[in-house]
Design brief:
By secondary structure, the protein is an alpha/beta fold. The chain has helices at about 20-35, 40-45, 85-95, 125-135, 155, 170-195, and strands at about 5-10, 45-50, 55-65, 110-115, 140-145, 160-165, 210. The chain is built from 6 helices and 7 strands; from the N terminus they run βααββαβαβαβαβ. Strands 3-2-1-4-5-6-7 form a 7-stranded mixed sheet, with helices on both faces. About 35% of the residues lie in helices and about 20% in strands.
Length: about 210
């Protein structure tokens, strides 16, 4: 069966320390639990998780939804936000993990990308380079989330096909965002199983989320 690869990039910089990262950890479990109730998603969705702070790291390789483990994210006391390095890393993972179609059979569906940050890229030069590269990486949709008043939504707008805003960094806001992400993924799984080539329209978000593009 063709897989739907989903890559999630999460900001774990020092500004996320405390309640925000605790809320993200809980919300990731909500996302997984919600998706596992959808038979289409359970059959096709594979998730890869990358975090970024003073470095970008793979927290979980692309993994079937039903086998994705509970991952507890942590943050440093302080430090930069290397979003550019995260974009570079996810492109490497797409090249190595996503199956390409051939004469022998169809490859995976075009992957989805979700990026959440509460700040702005610290690695400006790398970020500027990767903004152009990520646009040609073959993602069906790239959804960004700027969380809290310090999030640089302008940076997300430079490469994301849709950008959402959360006014605060509290638990309810993150939970609503991750539930909405699960809706986007589930809709993508159903539409591609039905033969659609791309994710052309996102489901309506809850009122806690403001879509800016």
């Amino acid at each position: 069966m063709r897989r739907l690869p989903v890559y999630i990039l999460l900001d774990t910089s020092g500004s996320m320390r405390g309640e925000p990262i605790h809320a993200v950890n809980n919300s990731m479990q909500v996302l997984l639990s919600t998706l596992r109730q959808d038979p289409h998603a359970l059959d096709t969705v594979h998730i890869g998780l990358i975090t970024f702070d003073l470095e970008a790291r793979v927290m979980q390789e692309l993994t079937p939804l039903d086998a994705f483990p509970q991952v507890t994210l942590e943050t440093p006391n302080s430090g930069p936000t290397f979003l550019g390095e995260a974009l570079k890393l996810v492109q490497q993972k797409v090249k190595s993990e996503v199956r390409v179609g051939s004469d022998e059979g169809k490859g995976d569906w075009a992957p989805l990308l979700f990026v959440m940050t509460d700040g702005k890229p610290s690695d400006t030069m790398v970020f500027n380079e990767q903004v152009e590269a990520i646009k040609s990486a073959g993602f069906a949709a790239m959804v960004g989330c700027g969380a809290g008043p310090s999030a640089d939504v302008t940076a997300l707008k430079r490469f994301c096909t849709s950008v959402a805003m959360l006014d605060t960094l509290d638990g309810p806001g993150f939970e609503q965002f991750f539930k909405w992400v699960s809706d986007v993924i589930a809709d993508g799984s159903r539409s591609q199983n039905a033969g659609a080539a791309d994710v052309t329209e996102l489901p309506p978000p809850p009122r806690e989320i403001n879509i800016v593009i």
